[in-house]
Amino acid sequence: MLTRRHILLRLILAAAPCFLMCTGGIAQQLRSESLPDAPSQTQKPPTTPQTANPIQGGVEIFKLLQEKSLVFPDLATTGGALSNRQKFKLAANNSVAMSTIGAAAIGAAYGQAIDSPSGYHQGAEGYGKRFGAEMARAASDNMFGTFLLASALHQDPRFYVKKNLSFKQSLEYAAVRVFITRSDSGERVVNYSGLIGPLMGEGLANAYYPDENRTVGSTFTRYASDLGWRFGGNLLRQYWPSINRKLRLAPESSPTRGTTDNTP
User: Fold this and answer.
1) Whole-angstrom Cα distance, residue 230 to residue 227?
2) According to the UniProt entry, which residue ranges have a biased composition of type Low complexity (predicted)?
3) I need a surface site. Which of 79, 128, 147, 261 has the fewest CB within 10 A?
4) What is the pLDDT of residues 160-200, one digit of tens each?
5) What's the first-to-final CA gap in the chain, in angstroms?
6) DSSP 8-state assignment for residue 158
7) Which domain holds residue 85?
């Protein structure tokens, strides 16, 4: 008879390929992507207005894909503050990013193994409900934190990669970045949008979670899990440009832009 540990291991192993497929399936798009180690302040030359046409529109979409990561859209690639409209677009992109889908698949597998939320029960239907709830929680977190609170508090929701850090320093930076961010003006500030956003998202999750999983204890347990996932995500973001280059997902000749002095 299989123990819970064996079931957990099997489900996580089954979900891991899903995450790898999510990230690996966009390798062809990422071959044209150049993720910097940090944002640059370079200015683009002005362009003359041209009549819109389908070919030009396709070129603009291709350029947009070059400017952001499809795995981590919140990696900062340019300096300067984001407008509220850009923060909304970032929240939407984060909600359907490959990293979000992969994390939801693994989180749902873990929840299936420990039967949490218990009200979703087991089987394929239970896994589907858990996966949907994970995606909904991520979307709520992004809309509250990345867009609404970041806009109201004038905070930058992007992650700034720091170069030349040891693994220990990267761990510390990933942890600090959970609690400290930068403002739109580039100053170090408490990451209220990143801390309150997930809590508001978990409060909203009580509207669709099973009745027995809407308690205060369950809400704060999920919130603590959100912060843990955010720390792990920050660490992966810190190394993502290096992983991107080593896997040759971006052209080897792509220039690496320097870091800024005011990153958090």
Assistant:
1) 5
2) 39-51
3) 261
4) 999 889 999 999 999 999 999 999 999 999 999 999 999 99
5) 51
6) S
7) 4-38+71-246
Is position 31 within any domain?
yes
The amino acid that residue 122 corresponds to is Q
Q: pTM of the full predicted structure?
A: 0.68
Q: How many structural domains is the chain composed of?
A: 1
Confirm whether 207 is domain-assigned: yes
Residue 123 lies in a domain: yes
Average pLDDT over residues 216-228: 93
Predicted confidence band at 39 (pLDDT cuts at 50, 70, 90)?
Answer: low
Joined tokens for residue 66: 């070059």
Average pLDDT over residues 91-117: 91
Q: How buried is residue 110: exposed, middle or buried, by Cβ count under 10 Å (0-12/13-18/19+)?
A: middle
* Residue 52 falls inside a structural domain: no
In whole angstroms, what is the distance from residue 214 CA to residue 204 CA?
A: 10
